Amino acid sequence: MTGQVDTRHFRTLFISDVHLGSKAARTDFLLDFLRYHEADTLFLVGDIVDGWRLKRNWYWPQGCNDVVQKLLRKARKGARIVYIPGNHDEFLRSFPGMHFGGIEVAERAIYEMADGKKYLILHGDEFDVVVRNARLLAYLGDWAYDAAIAINVVLAAVRRRLGMPYWSFSAWAKLQVKHAVNFIGEFQRVVAEEARRNNVDGVICGHIHHAVMEDIEGIHYVNTGDWVESCTAIAENHDGTLEMISWQKIGNTAEIKALPKPQSVEDMQAA
Ligand SMILES: [Mn+2]
């Protein structure tokens, strides 16, 4: 099949975990994706730039500039772009409400789809500590849950001060292969619970590099995946329905290229 790929237009697009500045970032696939997909609103759901990686070792090939230019051009042409920082680009968290080049920065957002359903949009790293200590926290109760999230924020800041890399959920989960599925399930459950606390119908997050759309006890849990391995985005159609798009190809063809597996611990730590 070599059929033409037409540009598709959506009400909203959600992408996350591009990790620009890391060698694992698939800027080639992302650029191609952005070429064929337009939206009125584009949410960048965190870890778009890998500030942690860049601080240690500056790596910024032309592909990274091309992605940034493409996004800025979309903003100039009238798309609303909202950047929700993640743990790897948390330097932006100091600037909520800031605008740069037509891009708004917000810590999290509540967004209404065309069908009236409301979604909480956040990156998700604040729940790492809850996932890792799920059993203990369940035993200690609600106060410990809130305290754990607060402590996670402080610990991340301390680690950053000391120049230590951010603890990586997906690298850690991959190393604990036997338990990884449980950890992913626990993350999804905790994030869905946060959506329930916010009285919304669903949640769209990133962080764990595990793209999925599913119902979790009445909450629509949606994860955007990443542009390191899965190369996925979530799109909202004009009727409010959501779909997952996987884009591991280049050029105006239907050819799908196999993605190489991450080569090193460095790549895995991109998460
Ligand atoms: Mn993250």
UniProtKB/TrEMBL annotation:
InterPro entries: Calcineurin-like_PHP, LpxH-like, Metallo-depent_PP-like. It comes from the Bacteria. Its EC number is 3.6.1.54. Residues 10-210 form the Calcineurin-like phosphoesterase domain. It is an enzyme of class 3 (hydrolase). The keyword Metal-binding applies. It holds the Pfam family Metallophos. Keywords: Cell inner membrane, Cell membrane, Hydrolase, Manganese, Membrane, Metal-binding. One of its GO terms (molecular function) is hydrolase activity. This is UDP-2,3-diacylglucosamine diphosphatase. It comes from Neorhizobium phenanthreniclasticum.
